[in-house]
Design goal:
Layout (H helix, E strand, L loop, with lengths): L1 H17 L32 H7 L4 E13 L6 E5 L4 E5 L1 H14 L7 E4 L5 E4 L4 E5 L8 H10 L4 E3 L12 E5 L5 E10 L9 E11 L3
Antiparallel strand pairs: 1-10, 2-3, 2-4, 4-5, 5-7, 6-8, 8-9, 9-10
């Protein structure tokens, strides 16, 4: 009884190999797409901007602290110094002892002195930007009145000092100074008048109108 079964199975196997018994047909509706052999990889999204990237690309924002504030620098006898601190704001006269003490304290602490702009020397009239600041001296037609433009000009400027007497290029009324203070504020100071500008002497006073902006943290 077992022999016919074995023979029949062997015959079927031989027919399949010979192509005589192709077996059941495959339906065309059956999905014959081979299954993927690897693990699918999700698309990689481009890296998002970090907070520091966003902050560095964002334009600066400024707020007005004071607008067109009248200020005056006087000129005392040698070796006294008059100076303006735009951040305060304040204008003050310093004796030689006070000025030297102020500079000595600054050197000891490594911090800039408080005043931003000084006027001294009754013979020559030296207007000077103090250390730790940047400034540009501009003609009125080249001086924008926006904080952004003034800050940019101050960064690229090279003003350090000006001699108001005995110099071929004297300061003129309406001259504009764009200044970055040691506190990071932006100042636009324009000369409005010279007082006591006698021939052979520097002005006894320089009058300004000053606008200051602070950079917004937002």
């Amino acid at each position: 009884m077992l022999i016919p079964v074995v023979v029949s199975l062997a015959t079927n196997s031989d027919d399949d190999k010979a192509g005589k018994n192709p077996g059941p047909s495959v339906s065309t509706s059956e999905d014959t797409t081979p299954a993927p052999t690897g693990t699918p990889v999700a698309p990689v999204a481009p890296p998002s901007a970090t907070p520091s990237d966003t902050q560095s690309s964002a334009p600066a924002s400024y707020e007005v602290v004071y607008d067109k504030e009248p200020m005056t620098l006087g000129l005392g006898g040698n070796p006294d110094v008059y100076a303006i601190d735009f951040d305060a704001p304040s204008s003050r006269h310093y004796s030689e002892e006070e000025w030297n003490s102020l500079k000595a304290d600054a050197e000891e602490t490594g911090a800039p002195i408080e005043p931003d702009l000084s006027y001294s020397n009754s013979v020559w009239g030296n207007l000077a930007l103090r250390d730790g600041r940047n400034a540009a001296q501009l003609k009125p037609e080249h001086a924008d009145d926006s904080a952004e433009a003034c800050a940019r000009r101050a960064q690229l400027g090279g003003f350090r000092s000006s001699q108001l007497w005995g110099s071929e290029e004297k300061l003129q009324v309406k001259t504009v100074f764009c200044i970055l203070t040691d506190k990071g504020n932006v100042v636009r100071a324009q000369i409005t008048r010279f007082i006591g500008n006698d021939p052979g002497d520097p002005p006894s006073q320089i009058e300004f109108t000053a606008t200051m902006w602070s950079r917004s943290s937002g």
